Amino acid sequence: MEDVIQIKTDKRFIRQVKSLGGNPLKECMQCGACSVVCKLSPEENPFPRKEMLWASWGMKDKLIGDPDLWLCHQCGDCSATCPRGVQPATVLSALRHINYLEYASPRFLAVWLSKPVYLPLVVAIPALIILLILWMAGTVSVPDGPVDYSKLFPHPLLNGTFATLVILVLVAYWKGFRRFKRDIRKNQRAKIKGQKSKKNNQKRIRFFYQLKEILLHTQFRKCQTNRLRTLAHILVFSGFLLLLLVTLVAIVNVLFFEYPMNFWHPAKIAGNLGGLALVTGTMMMIWYRLFRKDAIGPSTYADWSFLIFLLLLAVSGILTEWARFGNWSAAYVIYFIHLVLVWIVIIYAPYSKFGHLLYRLAVLILLKDRR
Amino acid sequence: MTTRPLLIIGGGISGITAAVEAAEAGMEVILVEKQPYLGGRVARLSRYFPKLCPPQCGLEINYRRIRNSRNIHILTSSTVDKISGTKGNFTVRIERSAQYVNNLCTACGECPAVCPVERPDEFYYGTRRTKAIFIPDEITVPFRYTIDGDVCLKAGCAECLSVCKYQAIDLYAQPETITREISGVILATGWKPYDAGRIPELGFGSGDRIVTNVMLERLPVREFIVSLLPARSSPVIAFAQCTGSRDRNHLPYCSGICCGTTLKQALMIREQLPESRIKIFFIDLRVQGRNEDVLTRVLADPNIELIKGKMAGARIQHNDGLVEIEAEDILNGRKIRTTVDLLVLATGMVPEQVGLDQVRTLDNGYIDRDSLPDGFFAVGNALHPADVPTSVKEATAAALKGLQVVRSTPPHPLPIRGGATGIGI
Amino acid sequence: MKDDVSATLGIYLCTGCGIHVAINADALQESICKAFPAATCRTHPALCSEQGTHTIWEDVRQNRLDKIVIGACSPRIHTDRFPADPTTIVERVNLREQVAWCQPPGTEDTRALAEDLMKMGITRVLASQAPLPYIPDNVSDTILIVGGGISGITAALEAARAGRQVLLVEKEAILGGRMNHLHQQIPFLQPYCSPVQPIIGDKVRELLAEERVTILTSAEIDHLSGQPGDFTVTIRQHGSLHTFRAGAIVMATGWKPYDPANLEHLGYGRLRSVITQPDLENCAREDHWDQLFPKNPVHGVLFIQCAGSRDPRHLPYCSNYCCATTLKQTTYLRKKYPGLPIYVIYKDLRTPGHLEQFYQHIQQDELLFMTKGDVTDITENGDVITVKADKTLFGESIVVDVDLVVLATGMVPSNTSELNLTYRQGKGLPDLKYGFPDSHFICFPYETRRTGIYAAGACRAPMDSASCMEDAGGAVLKAIQCIEAIKRGEAVHPRSGDRSWPELYMQRCTDCKRCTEECPFGAYDETPKGTPLPHPTRCRRCGICLGACPERIINFSDFSIDNVSAMIKAVGIPDEFEEKYRILAFVCENDAYPAFDMAGQKRLQYDPSVRIIPVRCIGSVNRIWITDALSRGFDGILLIGCRPGEDYQCHFIQGSELAQQRAENFKEALQTMMLEPERIRMEFIEITDCDKIPTLIRDYLETIKRIGPNPFKGI
To answer: Do residue C700 and residue C574 come from a single domain?
Structure first.
């Protein structure tokens, strides 16, 4: 059966891509250099050239659920090479953003996170809900004595609340994510014909292989142009992972052992290192976005908001710790802010740029190895 | 002749054409060329496209017309330092580098044998060497030897002096300044190849197997490729179009002639090496007008593959020294990574610097035509990327502009120097 | 050789540059002085030096010499040292590149070669006259410009500003040509961002203000006769005839669009909504969009590039301007229909040079979609046209529904027979490929096969309007140059400055008209009685007619049947017992002779049996010389010229081809004389083929050795 595309161009889609940072995309002359320099793109049907073509032609159907978008690390090798200066890296970032909007369920959350006009709402909702919970728990007050955060937000309530929220969000999000999985499988099958799917045990091997690759940033390190960004991402990634693990350890400690933990507790040290890594990494990323626009292209509100929230999360976490040690009077306020930020970064994750975690993981694990 | 001559800066195909056409229309012409020979870049080509004919054929006719004309005064090894004045009444100051070999040279050829110094042959883009005293090519005007003053040992050696029977060598020669009054100026300063070394991802300079298109013109193709072959029966040669052109990181404009050059070179290689295979990687194949003929010929050859997709990477492999190239074969939707025996980079053209106060250039280095003062005219590759027919056409039209200037200025009593000499003033 | 003739002859032998090593100059001088006792004969170690040239000119003055033979370096070298003037004939014998540098020094063969060449040179010069140039009475300075489009108008302006009288003839009622149909023009100045207002209006106004220009509109050429410097053109305007004179002609008759009726496979004629670029341009200019779009278009417009171009079944060449024109026209559509998608399907997008900026700028249109592709199918479905293309950038075939398809058709040059030349060879300018007037279009684009008539603009080669303007300037320069040369009695390119011209001894003419038919430049017409009628200023002095004439009545003052025959007879032929061969080589002076020089420069050695006679064109070789050579005892005759064929190198266009045909005829004639046809060989070499010369000669000598020496030797 011959492959024929019935052309249907979507002007609004093109405008959307342009507004999300892909402004010069129409000037692409389809030379293909970007696909070649991209170390992450496969041999067959490589990206990002074809994405540039589809985007220039407003072919939204091809780009929603395009798995290749998630193999891209926005390292900028392609933009550096591009003779036309059309910044494929930024265009792909814009396309990913549109994908977030398309697959997010409920959609309005993703919309809120992508437009500055909704920022007050984005911040107010977690703040109010947390306050509500505290009020219902009767702990809305600034307690006296040495700082003990459980006085404000008892641990069981805290952990229970956030665990519940995470589950609620994942359930709500599942519908969209299922659509995503279906679409990427369909789009990949359309391109690579005649390949049977591997057996299950091979899938498992692939899963662990991918996991190792992700942890070690093997693919990211292939990128040439903005090597510091690779480092920045390693810092952010490992910092976040560390903090996540530390939080889990903390929960276990709360339940079974001493809490809060001693400063010299290995988990505490790990947590502090993680925090440091996270702060350093995000600050490097912010520096890149502010001062190296030539290398990585323009940044959108969605890019900035995620990054700044992440930074604030890390900073507020560190300040929370210091406030406890220093018995600052503002400690509980800082803690409260920290909790709001935890919500914004983690609970909202599927609807913000943080969603790349889920989408990328899905593409890397679910699909046949394309490299 | 009682009017001031026309000054032509640049002795390539544009300058030569302007000089010859102006002279035969009755004007007196001073042709200034910075090299010791005329012919510019086309003298260093082996073939023209689309006819695959040698440039020397047309150049010989022009040189004959120059020789037979009494109106053309040629100053080689010279540059124009300064021009002052207004249309019809300019004064030009020309700097002529030291003429260690003067026009008494008969080109008898005794001197290179005794010269101890060697230098890279820039006529051959550095792929060969000559002695410090050398003659650039077999067809060259003026037909005489020249000394590269930068490497010559001068009076400390003087071997050439001892064998020259014609008092043609003066190792104490000094540069001289020549001032003339002229009526108009034609800027025919031409181009130089874009430095492929500024594109590290294509590996130029890392080995003999990666050359530029201009270098290939001067290489004996068959011998060179055979010398590179280990034991491959069927050498593969790749061409990378748009090396530096159509690229905002290098030259934003299209250099216009590289596609025609590559197609021509592909046909030449195929003719000399019937066992060879060629791959050409391009974005758009730009051969306009009748130049399309060269593409038609290439399409008829099944051993020349045309692949749409800009070559984005090339390197010499450590193990076997062959060239690994990468590009996307766009129409088939797959990346190509393969090894070839020779990679030819189709580098673009950059205009030569003119170096005159009155002449302003655009950002891309080309002369800003609109800003040229009255009496100044620009032609050929000084103005925009141009192939030979375009340069010839513009040079002829500029000769007419010169004629208009000469006509519009009142006669000036100026005796012709040197009787009927045609070369040198 | 009569003494009184050689009394004004000066013979100079240079012994520099290795000549003295190669030959015994004193012995040669002695031999020459014996043969020509009345002549002044000297040797000198460096004739090109100031002292050397001084010696010569002193002799000229003192001994009243009018003919000089200089045996030294190649005539292509040091031409400034030994210039001819109207009263002194200078013959250069090539003892350096073609004897001393390519032959073993001091051998008997080398000396014999030098002696033969000197004697040939001397003999030739004694049989030559300084030319009395042909200058027609009353040379007209007027330049006739045929065509009033952008090329013709620019030509007229430039010619007027150069001080010439101009006559412009335009067949339409108004000036402007096809540019009148333009809505806007492709940008030709920085910043190359948007189309610009057509400049044709301004140009017409400029022209109308020029004093020296006579403009005739609604006028066509009824007939054009005469020769450069002296053309008579009769123009028909509104039914009546007017006659003018002109010195040279610029043909600027432009182009017409390729006939889209041939493009049925792309839907033209077959489907309602398929038009061409010129159609769209007209519509934009007249703002008649409703004719194209009866209903408001919603689907889009699709441009198909290279419609009938770059296609061996239609126009094999590329028309240059269609890619940029489509980009320009997308702006028209965009202005009128802001939300309409526009598609462009191309083979290659050709915007070279600065036009690349234009391409990049136009691409910013959000609803402009461009892809490479081959259109395979166009069908109509109700109001919608469905276009299918494969081999696209998508890696798959695409199907697009649009309201309108625009075919980017190419340029076809106008028919030059509009010139209505009364030349016997035909009304127009001969063409070779694609209908463009034939010329050496790379190096010498203006030189058509009709001297004094120069083509400019799109009738010469496909080009856009900015290029047409440059082209016009060049053609005018050539026209002026031609007139000036004629006033000096000189030929134009490629034998610029040549004052000889073909003189016919009409008493012996048999009206065979081979000269008339074979002259590549149509220099001969025919009288009512059928006799060839030469027009000397049409002549390029190639001598092809001289070679063609069976009665040998055509001669130039310095290149004639007799003086070449004399050269042949001056060669010393060794008798048959010496087992030495003699080959006569006619070598064309344009490519072949320089190749021999370069062989010498490279010190390539070849057999000493070759005696070279340089000729103006290999097509100027007359059959009688072959006969003379064979009766003289030459064992073989080589004819070496420039490449013929579609990619010809021959500077006189057809000389090589004619020589090739004649060589075949000679061979047949040889067979009737019981001689081997191999005694004549035709070779085509390029100017860069010097390395092939030794092999070529050696190869030929093998053949001669095989068939044995000339049986007529010694008879």
So the answer is: yes
Q: Phi/psi at A8 (nearest 5 deg)? A: -140, 110
Residue C477 lies in a domain: yes
DSSP B391: H
**Spatial separation of the C-alpha atoms in residues C271 and B230, rounded to whole Å:** 59
- Number of helices (H) and strands (E), helices first, in chain B? 8, 22
Q: Tell me: do B276 and B254 sit in the same domain.
A: yes
The set of chains that have 3 or more CB pairs under 8 A with B is: A, C
Q: Chain C within 8 Å of A6 (Cβ-Cβ)?
A: yes
| Minimum CA–CA partner of A16 in chain C | C366
Question: Hey, are the CB atoms on A46 and B283 less than 8 Å from each other?
Answer: no
CA distances in angstroms from A172 to A49, A168, A346, A350, listed in the order given? 34, 6, 14, 10
Which pair of structure tokens corresponds to residue C471? 């082209």
Subunits with at least 3 CB pairs below 8 A relative to chain C? A, B
Q: Which of residues 226-265 of B touch C (CB under 8 A)?
A: 246, 252-256
- The CA distances from residue B395 to B42, C421, C636, in Å, are 15, 30, 45
**Chain C CB within 8 Å of residue B330 CB:** yes
Q: Which of C341, C365, C393 sits opposite A53 (nearest CB)?
A: C393
CA dist., res. C589 & res. C98, Å (int):
14
Burial class (CB within 10 angstroms; exposed 0-12, middle 13-18, buried 19+) of C579: exposed
| Second CATH level (architecture) for the domain A112-366 | Up-down Bundle (1.20)
The answer to whether residues B247 and B330 belong to one domain is: yes
Residues C78 and C26 in one domain: yes
Q: Given its phi and psi angles, is residue A110 left (phi above 0), alpha (psi -120 to 50 degrees) or beta?
A: alpha
Domain of residue C381, residue span: 257-411
CA neighbor of A146 nearest in space, from A276, A8, A327:
A327
Q: In B, which residues are within 8 Å of A49 by CB distance?
A: 328, 330
CATH number at residue B39: 3.50.50.60
ipTM over 0.85: yes
Does A144 lie at the interface with C, CB-CB under 8 angstroms? no
By C-alpha distance, which of C151, C180, C144 is closest to C471? Answer: C151
Residue ending a domain, choose from B321, B347, B373? B347
Strand partners, B351: B191
* Contact (CB, 8 A) for C535 and C232: no
Tell me, yes or no, whether B261 and B341 share the same domain: yes
Distance from CA of A185 to the nearest CA of C (A): 20
Are B41 and B190 in contact by the 8 Å Cβ rule? The answer is yes
Minimum CA–CA partner of B73 in chain C: C80
Q: Does B126 touch chain C (CB under 8 A)?
A: no
The domain locations on chain A are 11-103, 112-366
Note whether residue B148 is domain-resident: no
Q: pLDDT tens, position by position, for chain B (425 residues)?
A: 457 999 999 999 999 999 999 999 999 999 999 999 999 999 999 999 999 999 999 999 999 999 888 899 999 999 999 999 999 999 999 999 999 999 889 999 899 999 999 999 989 888 889 999 999 887 888 889 999 999 999 989 999 999 999 999 999 999 999 999 999 999 999 999 999 999 999 999 998 899 999 999 988 878 888 887 765 678 999 999 999 999 999 999 999 999 999 999 999 999 988 999 999 999 999 999 999 999 999 999 999 999 999 999 999 998 888 999 999 999 999 999 999 999 999 999 999 999 999 999 999 999 999 999 999 999 999 999 999 999 999 999 999 999 999 887 666 544 333 233 223 22
Topology annotation, domain A11-103 = Fumarate Reductase Iron-sulfur Protein; Chain B, domain 2 (1.10.1060)
| B29, B45, B56, B61: best to mutate for the C interface, most C CBs within 10 A | B61
As given in the structure block, the two tokens for residue C435 are 């209908």
- Segments forming the whole domain that contains residue B386: 6-97+175-190+352-408
Query: Do B341 and B365 share a domain, yes or no?
Result: no
